[in-house]
Amino acid sequence: MEDQMKVFGSNLDDSERNYQNVVPPNRTRAMKAKSGEPSFVRIASHKSCISSRTSKIILYILVCVSLLMATAAFLLAFLKFLPQCPKGWLKFQTNCYYLSADQQPWEKAMSNCQSLNAHLVVIDDKNDIDKQEFLDHLKNSSYWIGLRRYPKDKWMWINGKSFSETTQSIENNEKENCIYNFWKDSKSRKKKTACTEYFSYICEKEQL
Questions:
Q1: Residue 133 lies in a domain
Q2: For residue range 43-92, what is the model confidence (pLDDT) as tens digits?
Q3: Where in the cell is it found (predicted)?
Q4: Which structural domain range is residue 74 located in?
């Protein structure tokens, strides 16, 4: 009898234990909901990671744009300090040249060049061969140059240099005291004439 009671008690204890292990439905739903929280957290974390990457990319783009703008501003500021020619002038080596559209006597042509902070072009036969070729391609008509005869029958350039007669001899003539360039046989040549004649002219000055 005692053995039967023990068996019954043992079965009862097992039932109680099984009952204790039974989870109510509402608690099961709560546990499921609780077990679902990590998935939501993972999604939120993934979105946060994407947002962080997007912010970094935008920041990188903004930095690159800022650097490009700063570089462009620096280059523009630097170019302002580089020597350059005024608008309407042509650059050759370190000088600027202005080709007139009108014709004037030598003195007036020189005055017009001076008003532009320049002078009539100087073309020394020995030292300015490249310059002469440059001007020949620009203007193949007659034009005044900065060469004339001063007192004591001395031919000089307006910059004070003496004229080196390498292409032709200039005869003394009281009425022919100025020199102009003219185009002949596909070549530029110098010729003396009266300073009151009308020709085009070329002004010359250093780059600003």
A1: yes
A2: 556 566 667 778 888 888 888 888 888 888 777 665 566 668 999 999 99
A3: Cell membrane; Secreted
A4: 56-83
Burial class (CB in 10 A: 0-12, 13-18, 19+), 168: exposed
CA distances from 96 to 85, 112, 189, 205 (A): 6, 15, 22, 5
DSSP states along 128-191: -HHHHHHHHHH--S-EEEEEEEEGGGEEEETTSPBP--SS------TT--EEEEEEETTEEEEE
How many domains does the structure of the chain reveal?
Answer: 2
CB within 8 Å of 163: residues ≥ 6 apart: 147, 155, 156, 157, 170
Can you give the pLDDT at residue 188? 78
The residues near 30 (Cβ < 8 Å, ≥ 6 apart) are none
Q: What is the pairing mode between strands 143-150 and 154-157?
A: antiparallel
Determine the pLDDT at residue 194.
94
Each residue of 130-146: pLDDT tens digit?
888 888 777 668 999 99
pLDDT at 105 over 60: yes
Alpha-carbon span 44 to 80, nearest angstrom = 54
Same domain, 142 and 179: yes
On whether the CB atoms of residues 181 and 166 are closer than 8 A, the answer is: no
